[in-house]
Amino acid sequence: MADSICGRVGPSFISFVVPLPYYIEVPGSAADVRQVFVWITKKIRKKVLTIFVTVGIQHATFAHLVYAWLTPFTDIYSAKDLTGGTSDKEYMRINQFYMETSQNLAKYQGLKSRKGYQPEIFGRLCVTSYQKLNL
Length: 135
Known about the structure:
Elements: H1 2-17, E1 22-32, H2 42-47, E2 51-59, H3 62-70, E3 75-78, H4 79-83, H5 88-112, E4 120-122, E5 125-127
Antiparallel strand pairs: 1-2, 1-3, 4-5
C-alpha cells in the first residue's frame, strides 16, 4: 500500500517542485501612481489616472507550464529566449543593474525638474543630497 501511495504522490510532487528550462510571465498588480508620487499637485490629481502595471517571471515547473498553457494572459518562454543563454545568477545581476539604473534616472529627472537645481552624475549613479532641496 505504501508503494502505491508513493507511486502516485511522487510524480505529482515532482511536477510542482522540479524547475524546467522554461519561464512563465504572469500578470502582477496594478497600482495608482498617485499613491507613490505624493508631490503631484491637486490640480493634476483630479485630471490624471496613471497606473503602474507589474509582471512576474518565474521558473516553470510542469504544473506551471500546464497552467500557463491553459491561461490566455500567461506567456511561456524558453530559458535561452528569456536569459539570452546566460546563467540565472548572471541574468538576475543584469536585471538588478537595469532596475538600479531606472531608479537613478527617475531620481535624476525628478531633481532636474526642480527650478534652479542641477543634480550631479557620477558614473551610472545619481548622487546628490536631498537635504539641499529643503523638502
